[in-house]
Amino acid sequence: MTQFDLPVVRPKWFSWAQTILFGLWVPILFLIPFHGDYEAAGLVAGLFVGGAILGWFDQKWRDEETLQIWAGGFERGFLLLSLWFLAQRLWGDEWEPFPTLLTTLAIALLARYIIGLVVILSRQRLRLPPVRRDIWQYFAHWGIYATVLLHTIEAHPWAAISTGVSLILCGVSSGTWMIRHLRHPNARSHITMATQITLSRIVLAPVFIAVFFYDSDTDFSNNHLVFQVTALLIALASAISDWLDGYLARKWGEVTTLGKYLDPWSDKISTMTTFLCFLGTGWASVTIVALIFYRESAVETLRTLAAAEGEVISARRSGKWKTAIQIGAILAILTFACFDGILRDMHIVWAWWDLFFRMAPRILMWIVAMVTVASGVEYFYANRHLLKKHI
Fold first, then answer.
1. Which one of 76, 176, 264, 364 is most buried, by most CB atoms within 10 A?
2. Mean pLDDT (the chain, rounded)
3. What is the pTM for the complete model shown?
4. Strand, coil or helix: what is 164?
């Protein structure tokens, strides 16, 4: 019998076997928080072996049913939950160091699964064949199972080694999978790369809020150093993307009307989100944030008025300086906060640093507010002919 004569429909027992395996996740997720280590480890091992056996049988059926795609998604969701529960178990143990590597793996895996789901749904919408797994996908999947198993039985240092290896495999497998997806011409978005980078700043804004206030405490200094550094990296990524989208649009000749409108809007979404977080933690006053908000709203109103007259208000030098100073102040304040967090973790007390860190954020934010307001005044003065038509 050749592969073309093989059946294309999975038998009923296959779905029942998958259901039974999925049911094992319920006691696993219950046992992990309560240190039912060996029982949970036995169930995880059973899941892995059972899944491997079903995977071997599944080679006989060549169809790609939507049900099977969602079944694989549920399995990955349960794996992610188990990693998260293991990380939370270590967070609550005062004798254990913060599980930085395990938390990073859980966050990376969540991002990978979300992107994968979006890609799968987009390929179905475009009626493209699914991207089949390669060897790196299997290695990453097995590595995550091994990480869950080793962390469950607290097999140190093998658990940490497995976590690091799984993180690397997750990155490699994600890269190869996305490359195979993008190789199909119909899978490429019609939105330019520059505009996609612009949109990424809007997506990162709520992520920044979640990371900034991860511990549900308005005092950013009480947040764990891992999330302080993550907030700094998100702000740095937003700053780089602010320069990169314009550079690529000009270099590749992809300047679009959508990009022209989205770029300043995404800048304001990103910076105002950060300033609101600074307001919450005490680094900026209500007056400072209000002045910045009033300026941005007034200039946007002026742009709308110009558009109604058929004119386009291009970015002025003062506006570019304003944006650069805002980004510089944000990165400086977050860098100071990370350095302060390092000193706290090392139990180092410098009186001069405490005084500096109490004053520096407020001083920088006042500078930002004054430059922002001055830039707004310059915009209105340069476009006073528009106001004369309506006032």
1. 364
2. 82
3. 0.60
4. helix
The residues near 389 (Cβ < 8 Å, ≥ 6 apart) are 309
- What residues contact 131, with CB distance under 8 A and at least 6 apart? 119, 123, 177, 180, 181
Tens digit of pLDDT for each residue in 217-239?
Answer: 788 888 888 888 889 989 998 99
Does 76 share its domain with 128?
yes
How much is the pLDDT for 69? 59
Average pLDDT over residues 178-195: 75
Q: Which of 187, 218, 245 is the last residue of a domain?
A: 187
pLDDT class of 333 with cuts at 50, 70, 90: very high
Question: For residue 87, which amino acid is it?
Answer: A
Q: Which CATH number fits the domain that encloses residue 138?
A: 1.20.120
Taking residue 187's Cβ as centre, other Cβ atoms within 10 Å add up to: 16
Instruction: For residue 251, give the CATH number of its domain.
Output: 1.20.120.1760
Domain that holds residue 150: 3-187
Task: Give, in order, the Cα–Cα distances in Å from 147 to each of 50, 290, 302.
Answer: 18, 48, 56
Q: How confident is the model at residue 255 (pLDDT cuts 50, 70, 90)?
A: confident
Instruction: Tally the domains of the chain.
Output: 2
User: How many angstroms separate the Cα of 34 from the Cα of each of 28, 29, 116?
Assistant: 10, 9, 32
* Nearest-angstrom CA–CA distance, 170 and 104: 11
